[in-house]
Input
Amino acid sequence: MAEKYDVIVVGASIAGCTAAALLARDGLRVALLEAHRDENMYKRLCTHFIQSSATPTIEGLGIAAELDALGAVHNLGDLWTSYGWVREPESVPGCPPYGYSVRRSVLDPLLRRTAAAAPTVELMLGAKVVDLVLDGDGRVGGVDARTSEGRVEIRGRLIVGADGKSSKIAELADLPGHEVPNNRFGYMAHYRNVGLSDWRRSKLWLLDNGDGVYVFPNDDGVAVLATMPGKARLDEFRGGDTEKALLSMYDGLSEAPDLSAAERVSDVIGAVDYPSILRPRITAPGVALIGDAAMVCDPLWGLGCGFAFQSAEWLAQEVSPVLRAGGEVDRATERYAKTHARRLRPHFKLTSDFSKVRTFNRLERLLFGGAPYDEVVADAFWRYGTRNASPAALLSPRVLTRAARVHRRAKAAATSAG
Output
């Protein structure tokens, strides 16, 4: 007879572990399946940057103190364009005071331990889902998984796909994704002894040619150096010394990190193709998707980790009371899907459009030009930039008027100087 659970979560990374822990907190019985056998497995290709919009979820999970003990950085952000620096203030109205920067080699095992410690969670390592199991009415009611002990059928009232951008659950549930090409590629590596004036501040240089260059200070004195240039520069990285090409991106940058004593402590890794993926539907009868399984944004903006935490919490908030009461869970997942679309699709639209690698449009020029010199514009910029507000925060008449005023002053000063 198949083992029965309230929820089967497939994928034990950020989204899956968060969902499992939150559901178990309400007494629900959760099977947490992970295809990898290593409990310390972690995602390598990641900026390790978590937006402050996810800080309440992290605190609600009860792992904030442990993250602090492990050396996680309370991050703030600085963005440079040719208009100047836009620096995240110490306090932005309506936003948590910081996000987290922590290596996935630290974060992922911590989350896995947190979920597995719940009495009603069963972590199944080395369990790979090969098919969905249907009830008599055609509704998904379980999974067929391959384990070290052979094939096993696991039954549950809800299957949660938290298995990443190439989600097997999405494929099996017929929840296809629409891909938006990304005209950038990316390479990154971890370094010690990177000289920075403020270890809390991650920096992004967004160059006029569309290239992105980063430094992300992380735990244990390790910084991630990363770049996402336009694909026109791909041969510079593939045709020779990849590390040399990566480090050369920092030459001549404003406030560039001091790399004279930098010591690389990881491989140089990257991805040539990383399209954005939007799934028009992220639920089906008996199935819901979270994290990258639901939506993949352009990694230029470092959104994946934060959205994984948040989408897992939104799903748990909707389905947990219904499952405990024995109600109709598919209606609850539909409400979750509406929240996901309302909260995240506007961010997807803007970030995927920017992945074309183009010059700034008129609105971007107005905001990038105004934010370095006007507090009102900067606050709106960071409310959006930390994903605590929708893009609408940038479009208020007050923000646009202030930004336009900055541009008029800059134009007048240039005319006067000429």
Remarks:
- The CA atoms of residues 91 and 113 lie 32 Å apart.
- The mean pLDDT is 95.
- The first strand starts at residue 3 and ends at 10.
